[in-house]
Structure formats: structure tokens, C-alpha cells
Amino acid sequence: MPLKFPRRIRFITHSLPRTTNNLASFSSGSRAYHCNTSSSSPLLSRIFSLNHLAIGPHINFSSRPNGGEPRASRSLIEDEEELSNWVSDLRPGSLRVHLTSDDDDDDVDRSRGRNQGFRGTRNKVDSFRENLFSDRDKGSNFRSSQSSFRGRKERSLGRDREGYKGLRKQRRGDVLDGESSDEDVKSLVMGGIGDLLSEEDEEEDEDHEFLKKKAASAFGFDKEKGVEARNDVKSSDSYLTKTRFDHYPLSPLSLKSLNDAGYETMTVVQEATLPIILKGKDVLAKAKTGTGKTVAFLLPSIEVVVKSPPTSPDNKRPPILALVICPTRELANQAATEANTLLKHHPTIGVQVVIGGTRLGLEQKRMQTNPCQILVATPGRLKDHIENTPGFETRLKGVKVLVLDEADHLLDMGFRKDIERILSAVPKERQTFLFSATVPEEVRQMCLVALRRDHEFINCVHEGTGETHQQVRQTHMIASLDKHFSLLYTLLRAHIADNVDYKVIVFCTTAMVTKLVADLLGELNLNVREIHSRKPQSYRTRVSNEFRKSKGLILVTSDVSARGVDYPDVTLVLQVGLPKDREQYIHRLGRTGRKGKEGEGILLLAPWEEYFLSSLKDLPITKSSLPSTDPETVKKVQKALCHVEMRNKEAAYQAWLGYYNSQKMIGRDKERLVELANEFSRSMGLDNPPAIPKLILGKMGLKNVPGLRAK
Ligand SMILES: Nc1ncnc2c1ncn2[C@@H]1O[C@H](COP(=O)(O)OP(=O)(O)OP(=O)(O)O)[C@@H](O)[C@H]1O
Question: Where is the DEAD-box RNA helicase Q domain (predicted)?
Fold first, then answer.
């Protein structure tokens, strides 16, 4: 099997490789290749798990342009169907590790002769690849089939790293086939590799010396001499670095604004990305929550605007030079606020926000009367403007910098089509940054369409430290549903008693469950606010601002507050019920422990949700015993539940059912799902589960399931 490596890979980290026992190993015979990626200094594990064969936190990889015909308008959703077909076509065992760059034929080839099975697969990958990705530079920027294949293979080989374990499988399952089990999907995707991985462990020690030498020579560095250490991405738990902003050639007015904001030295992600971005590179950056990603992308974007020639005041459609896309309205507002902080001493540069939930006409007017150079937007509303605001698309033709913030969430939220539309509206000649605390496979795919081929992946999440903060104590509790409300109340009361300046976020599974919990806690006389998608935007913004500034407050919220929202000094994040996935757990938890501060996270699950913990295995989360809830408390909670409006309970029941129905592990057994939903109904104090409109039951695929009441 030919094993080939791209030639232009740069080692940036200082931390490669320290130990040997984590190294990937090759073996002969049918077991082609193995990466054990579990801890601190994996070498090839890094290579294979990062998007571009990343070998350190920061890597540059270029591959030869492919002359294939681009299909600019192809949708990623259709592409996923194609991926599904492609995967279904694969017979287990047909997939073999093959890392190659087309121009690297003379590179490492340890196992020639074992690649026959792969050839056919590779052709499929080639054709899949050609179909999959639209071309940004018309013929010159079309990534090679190998990088696409690498992505899939990395997903498999690197799954122990970056927390891909359970989640990867789950996500693949969602994308590929609603009925497939996770294991089915894994075995399909991994083909022969999966089998090999499990067999390789005992050969690891024997092979790693060989492997290290191979890898060292293949990547052009000598382990004795060490690696080139250009950008030292330090452990992300040291929040600030010693590097001052004035170390870099930033405009004096930006430096003045930074100084006024109290930003003296850079955070880890800022230090790691700024020099690369200032060089004009596209960047994919992964950094833990609350570590200053917003400034990391805004500051260089502002510098691009500063360096652009001023627009004539006569220009009726002045260009938008920097476009920032955020998945939620809260995040967009927050990014614009941060931009204004950084623009304090740039009187000629303006920033505006366009977000859903506000009147399009008002935004149109505002943009017309006071055109800005920096626009922060949510994808849906931006697409609306592209399609409905005269001259807006012309203004977008001036975009020099495009930022996709919380890139994975943009995809999660079903914004693919909108993003595609946006990408087609901005110039191909631009700089693009993708920032996120988690970088799942979907983001890697998006990189292929949105970033230039030679972009750099800057990973500030140090190997072995996990994606969450060490200073945030994480625990989980398992209790039957009927105890959840009392437990929640008990936990909150205990936390309030221990923390005078408490500031708690309670995450619930859906908007209507959020409403129910907020109502209940309000009835229990706790100081509560709620934010979810059913609330008007003006209300959400007001509550968000209030919570940002407050202490002694509990925010009950759905996932609209899970990502990016910067509430300082949150003392506790309490997640009730199953988070949507591992990433969402991490992002929600990331609302506490920001800027290096301490924090606490509690995940409260029912026994049948316990399986979710396997996707958090690599995180420092421990089991906690249940606090005792005295009968008085239970009574009090039950009484409070009686005061919660019936229609809120009905809505919560229906939403609960919908949410868990969409959770593969739970939703696949409909009868069991309904049993659990009815348990939830009883936990709200209802003797009978609320009736649900037949139409909705039909849509949920729950018609005639015993235990449900239809109306
Ligand atoms: N260099 C700096 N020095 C001090 N504070 C900073 C610096 N850069 C950013 N901050 C502050 O750090 C906080 C967290 O920043 P930010 O919200 O950008 O984090 P994030 O990495 O985007 O988090 P998330 O992943 O949750 O979105 C903000 O209050 C921001 O103002």
C-alpha cells in the first residue's frame, strides 16, 4: 500500500513528539496501519486526525490543483447523500489507508502491493470528490481527491483524538442513514481500517521506532534536531500569553482601542492566529471556549479595512470589506459590540448587524443611510438581504475578509444552503477564517469549500488536555426523571447558598421545556430569566444584556445561549437532559470558566441517557452522588408544578417527545420513547399525558404508538 505524505507540511509546535508510546504504528501484512491517539504527544495520530494531515497544532498543507470541472452550485446536503451512496457501495475491507499527494510518487511506500483493494475505492473517492466540492478559484483551487479521502480516513483514524469517539459515529449516522446503527456506520466508513485498528495495539511498541523515523523523514525533519517551532501554541489553560499586541504591525488606532479595552497581551488563540492572518493566509482555528476568538478574527479584519483605500462619499453602494457570519443573533450582536470596542479610535470605520427577528426594512434603511465597512450577520438574514435588498450583492463584491464564527454550529443549524449562497455572493479572492471551539468533520468539509487550499489549521487545544477547561469542575448525576425537578431545585439552592454572587445558566433540551423549567423555578421564588427561540428578539437581547451585567441570577435557556455568548463570571452551568451531542455539551459548559476563571458544570441525566457519557469519556467529568432531597422540598416542587400553566406543560411534553424522537439512540424504539415521554409527563404532575394533534404525531412518525393520546 503506498503511503505518501504531502511535501509541504510545516511543524510549528514545540511539543512534538515527546513520548513514544502514543505513536501511530505501521505493521506488515493485512494490518496496514494504526494510530493510537490517546494522549499527549501523538505524532502520526495528529497527522491523520487533523484535517490536513495536521501534525501539530498548526500546519500548512498544499496539494496539487485538480483540473476537474467545478460544480459551483452543488449543495452540501446533496453531497452528503452522495457520500452516503458512496459509503454504501464500499464493502468492508475494501478501504485501505492511502495517503498520497499526486506529485509524491517517490515518497514513502512501506507496503507496496497491498493497495489493490484501495485503487477502486480511490477512484470512487476521486469522482466523489470531484462532485462534492465547488471550486473557489475556477480550476486552480480544486482540492485533490486525496484530501477528501484523508478527511474521511482521519475521521476514522483520529477518532480518539479531539473527542471524535461517540460523536463522530453519531453524526455520521445522522448524515448517512437514519436507520443505521452507529456501529454499522462506523464499520462502513472505516471499512478495513476499523478492523485493523482494533488489532494493532500489541504491535505498537515494536513499530513505533520505525514509524518515528519514517514520519520524520517523510515530513522532512530530524527528530534529533527537533522541529521548527515558529508558533508556540501553549496549553490553552493559560489564558493569556506574554505577547503584547504592539509586537505586531497593527495600526496605532487599533492599538489605542485595544489599550482602552484593557487588552494588553494576547490570548493563546490570538497569538497563534494573528501573525498567520496578517500574512494573508486563510485560517481554521480551534480554541477553547472563552479564550478570545472574537478579537482574534475581528482585529485582523479591522486591519484589512484600515489598509483598504477609502471609499468615495459619492459611491452609492460602498463595498462591505469584512463580513462576519455568526450562527445566532446573540452572537452576532456580541461580535458587533466587540468590533465597536476595537473600533473606538477608528471613527471612519463602521460596523452594522443584520439578524433575523428584526424588520428587514429597518435594516435596509440603516444600511443605506449609514453604510458600514464591516457587517456582522446571521446567515438567513444575510441571504434575505442578498436576495431582497437592492444593491446589496454589489456591496458584497467588495468583501476582502469573510469570517465564519462557530463554524460547526452554522452547519448544525441547517445553514448550509445559506452559506453556499453567501459564498457565491462574495469574491473568490478573499481571506477567510473559520473559528470554533470544536471542529467536527462537517467543518472540515466546509473548509474545503470556503477556505483556500493552503489555509492553515491552528489548533490551540493542546493534545491531551481535552476541549474543556481544567479549572471547570465537571460532574454528572444520574436520576430518574421523576426526581429531576426536585434535584434541580436542590442543586440551585445549594449553589446559591454557597455563592453570594451566583450566576447560573440552566440548559434545557428545547424551547418549550425551557419555558416550563423557567416557570417552575419562578414559582419556586428563584430569581430567574429565560431565553429561547420562542421569545421575541427584543426580549432576548434585553434579557441577555441583563444577565451579562447581573449577579444573583439564573438564566434558564435553550441552546440559543449554548455557543459563543460571553457572559462573564458564570459560576455554574447546569445541563438538564441529553445535550444534542458532545460538541453542544462542551459549548454549553464553556459559558462558565471563561477567561481562565473557575467554574462548575453539572450534567443531570436519566438512567436511559447515561449512554451519552461515553462520548465524554476523554473529558474530566466525574460521577457525583445525588444530593438528598428532603420530602419538604419534593412537596414544594410538586406544589409549584401545579401552578405552572397546563398549556406550558402540554407544549413541553410535545417538545420533549419531538426532541428525544430525533435522538437516534432513544428515538429508534418508538414504544419505549412514548413510555419515557409519559414518565416526563408524570414528572410534571400530570396524571394523563397531554393529547397531541394527529398531524404532528404523523410528522413525528408516531401515529398509533401505544401510550400516546391523539387529538
Ligand atoms: N487579549 C485579551 N485580553 C483580555 N481579555 C480578552 C482578550 N481578548 C478577548 N478578551 C475577552 O475574553 C472574553 C472571551 O472572549 P470571546 O467571547 O471572544 O471568547 P470565545 O473564544 O469566542 O468563546 P466561545 O468559544 O465561547 O465563543 C471576552 O470578554 C473578551 O472581551
Answer: 243-271
Separation of alpha carbons 699 and 711, rounded Å = 14
User: Residue 590 Cα, ligand 1 centroid: separation in angstroms?
Assistant: 12
Q: Where are the domains of the chain?
A: 238-459, 468-628, 645-700
Looking at 194-208, 644-658, 670-684, which range is the least confident one? 194-208
pLDDT tens for residues 122-157? 333 333 233 323 333 332 222 222 222 223 233 233
Choosing from 265, 268, 271, 291 the residue with most ligand 1 atoms within 8 A of its CB, the one to mutate for a pocket test is 291
Q: Is the pLDDT of residue 189 over 90?
A: no
292 Cα to the center of ligand 1, angstroms:
3
DSSP class per residue in 576-644? ES--SSHHHHHHHHTTSSGGG--EEEEEEE-GGGGGGGGGGTTS-EEE-PPPP--HHHHHHHHHHHHHS
291 is written with which cell numbers? 479564550
- Contact yes or no for 148/132 (Cβ under 8 A): yes
Coil, strand or helix: which one is 451? coil
Domain 468-628 has CATH 3.90.76.10: no
Which atom, in ligand 1's list, is nearest to the CA of 269? 21
Distance CA 711, CA 709 (A): 7
Ligand 1, atom 2: nearest CA belongs to which residue? 263
Residue whose Cα lies nearest atom 1 of ligand 1: it is 266
Span from the CA of 436 to the centroid of ligand 1 (angstroms): 13
How high is the mean pLDDT of the chain? Answer: 71
Q: Whose CA is nearest to atom 10 of ligand 1?
A: 292
Identify the pLDDT of residue 7.
Answer: 28
Domain 238-459 carries which CATH code? 3.40.50.300
More reliable by pLDDT, 376 or 102? 376
- Asked which of 104-118, 237-251, 291-305 is least confident by mean pLDDT, the reply is 104-118
Quick check: do 238-459 and 468-628 share a fold? yes
Report the atom number in ligand 1 closest to the C-alpha of 587.
Answer: 26
565 alpha carbon to ligand 1 midpoint, in Å? 10
How far is C-alpha 108 from the geometric centre of its chain's CA atoms? 34
- For the record, the C-alpha cell of 699 comes out as 410528522
Question: Among 183-197, 393-407, 558-572, where is mean pLDDT lowest?
Answer: 183-197
3-class DSSP state of 496: helix
Please give the model's pTM, rounded to 2 decimal places: 0.61
Task: Name which of 289, 284, 296 is nearest 258 in CA terms.
Answer: 296
Q: How much distance in Å is there from the Cα of 564 to the middle of ligand 1?
A: 9
> How far, in Å, is the centroid of ligand 1 from the Cα of 390?
36
Residue 677's contacts (CB-CB under 8 Å, 6 or more residues apart) are: 653, 656, 657, 660, 689, 707
Cα–Cα distances in angstroms (integers) from residue 7 to residues 60, 488, 643, in the given order: 10, 55, 68
The separation between CA 536 and the C-alpha centre of its own chain, rounded to angstroms, equals: 26
* Terminal C-alpha separation, the chain: 61
Q: Where are the beta strands (DSSP E) in 385-482?
A: 401-405, 431-436, 456-459, 472-478
How many angstroms does the Cα of residue 519 sit away from the middle of ligand 1? 32
> Ligand 1, residues 240, 273, 295, 408: which to mutate, most atoms within 8 A of Cβ?
295
Residue 419 C-alpha cell reads as 452559506
- For 107-135, the DSSP string reads S--SSTT--HHHHHHHHHHHHHHHHH---
Instruction: Give residue 510 CA to ligand 1 midpoint distance, Å.
Output: 27
- Distance of CA 309 from the midpoint of ligand 1 (Å): 30
Segment 610-643, tens digit of pLDDT = 999 999 998 899 999 999 999 999 999 999 999 9
Pocket lining for ligand 1, CB < 6 angstroms? 240, 263, 266-267, 270, 287, 289-295, 437, 564, 566, 590, 594-595
